[in-house]
Design brief:
Elements: H1 5-12, E1 28-29, E2 33-35, E3 38-42, H2 43-46, E4 50-52, E5 59-60, E6 66-70, E7 77-81, E8 87-90, E9 93-95, E10 100-106, E11 110-114, E12 118-122, E13 125-131, E14 133-136, E15 139-142
Parallel strand pairs: 1-12
Antiparallel strand pairs: 2-3, 3-13, 4-9, 5-8, 6-7, 7-11, 8-10, 10-13, 11-12, 14-15
Length: 145
């Protein structure tokens, strides 16, 4: 079955903006994926700077998803969506760059859903979810979505 923006919206109860095409299949890829103020990175790419704690508390991702991050000033949520029993999530990580929000492990494709950005899919694996930052001159700041 092809996963679409409409099916993810129905599964999670999270409405997406009307300008987004809701009937197109969501691509599932490996590698980096950015969505507004979030970036998802395979753990193997940043394993030298991001570590999952030995005592990390893992939570199964329910079918309706887990909110990873809400945009600035209470904006729209970035939601991790997976079929029940296929993905788990923890915030129990350390990151030398202080950008990691958490890590998820999946045995089936998972999706990141956002009302303004739509959705992207990740192949099974282990990924770090980080905030994005941007440079302005000599200063860097977190991206505000």
């Amino acid at each position: 079955m092809t996963v679409t923006l409409a099916s993810l919206s129905l599964q999670t109860g999270l409405a997406v903006l009307d300008h987004l095409e809701q009937s197109v299949g969501i691509p599932v890829v490996d590698g980096l994926q950015a969505q507004g103020d979030l970036i998802v990175i395979p753990l193997s790419v940043v394993a030298s700077s991001v570590k999952v704690g030995a005592d990390a508390h893992w939570t199964d991702v329910p079918a309706e998803g887990v909110e990873l991050l809400r945009g600035a000033a209470g904006g729209n949520p970035h939601t991790l969506v997976a079929d029940a029993g296929t993905c788990r999530w923890t915030r129990g990580v350390t990151d030398a760059d202080w950008l990691a929000i958490g890590v998820f492990e999946s045995s089936a494709p998972v999706y990141l859903l956002h009302p303004e950005h739509g959705a992207t899919g990740c192949v099974p694996g282990t990924y770090v979810v980080r905030r994005q930052r941007e440079q302005e001159g000599r200063r860097s700041r977190l991206v505000a979505d």
